[in-house]
Amino acid sequence: MQQSLSEKRPRIEVVDALRGFAVMAILVVHSIEHFIFPVYPDPANCPQWLNVLDQGVFGVIFGLFAGKSYSIFALLFGFTFFIQYNNRQQKGDDFGYRFLWRLLLLAGFATINAAFFPAGDVLLLYAIVGITLFIVRKSSNKVVFVIAIILLLQPVEWFHYIASIINPSYTLPNLGVGEMYAEVAEYTKEGNFWKFIIGNVTLGQKASLMWAVGAGRYFQTAGLFMIGMLIGRKGLFISTKENIRFWIKVLIVSAILFNPLYWLKVQLLDNANSEIIKQSAGVVLDMWQKFAFTFVLVSSFVLLYQTNKFQKLTSSLKVYGKMSLSNYITQSMFGALIYFPFGLYLAPYTGYTLSLFIGIAIFFIQLQFCKWWLTRFKHGPFETIWHKLTWIKIGKS
Q1: d(CA 145, CA 386)
Q2: pLDDT in tens, 63-86
Q3: Which of 19, 184, 289, 301 could staple 321 via S-S, CB 3.0–4.6 A?
């Protein structure tokens, strides 16, 4: 457990496994959501036991993973930036400008994924918000931590909430998200493949970016990126006694904070009478309770990974995580072909439980491909393209 990084490289292993866990969780959530295509069997035509089971599956999967898997993915994005930046820094190079080019490439991958995912793609949000990592790349740990905390506090949402108290007639800006998603739903139901693709990469992406504004995702993502970078700077994924004690403390504190934050979220987001409270303070509390539970998951995973049994149990996730970009994009392709009208159109016939099993089946198909591919190549297909294009010659660089 206490061997050095150069001997066993535990940091790389646990990060790959954790990334694989996050992408698998995203797949499971998206699958029971029908990849943001809310068409399901009529409960009146289903047996009661299946309706009860479906609701149980939905509650458990969303409670465990919704909003948390994305947060883990964002943390690891910031961590990976640190690894890349640090590696180049040791060679006397500033990776920052190459990283900006890498973000532009990420926007291209986001477009590929969004073509099959009608709600828009989080990778485009990462490509935009990732610029904050370039800005703080040379800042001290203290400065980065303070900025991250300010961002995670969601100052814009609190501004809206305070403004509504001062002026009862204050209203939130209408970003047109509902109208845009309604249009997305309409062309998705038509089953016209090319209209679906074009609509997704234009209107769908716009709707996603505007939704992220109202959901506080820009500030939260930037904060998570910076926390991930700090985890890398402090070497907290390296297996040492000090780091294990750190993750135990994180687990205890985040578990304690989660319960009151979740209760407040229920009061302000789920049960509040005022829409502006729901969409301001309620959004903040929802973000905070998910943030706390994210670190319950991360710290638990890191601590469990210190045991040989858990390492063996998650060995497949490590393989899956090494091709996270390829798996993330291809799972959207699978979902579109399985659930949408231009494909098999199984959405009206698959409730939450059956959709969960479909997601698990997609995971195992992808996993077998990962094992086959990685015995022949160093990186996954999309990872290889991203890597090669990252280091393509740009001008005199």
Answers
A1: 29
A2: 999 989 999 999 999 999 999 999
A3: 19
Interval 322-338 mean pLDDT: 96
Residues 109, 130: Cα–Cα separation, whole Å: 15
Q: What is the DSSP string of 295-357?
A: HHHHHHHHHHTTSHHHHHHTHHHHHHHHTHHHHHHHHHHHHHHHHSTTTT--GGG--HHHHHH
Among 27, 95, 39, 116, which Cα is nearest to 66's? Answer: 27
The vertex-194 CA angle with 191 and 195, nearest 5°, equals: 65
Buried b (16+ CB within 10 A) or exposed e, 80-115: bbbebbeeeeeeeeebbebbeebbebbbebbbbbbb
Q: What is the DSSP letter of 268?
A: I
- Phi then psi dihedrals of residue 375, to 5 deg: -80, -15
User: Alpha-carbon Rg of the chain, whole angstroms?
Assistant: 21
As a whole number of angstroms, the distance between CA 307 and CA 311 comes to: 6
Tokens representing 263? Answer: 């209760």
Do residues 229 and 78 make contact, with C-beta atoms less than 8 angstroms apart?
yes
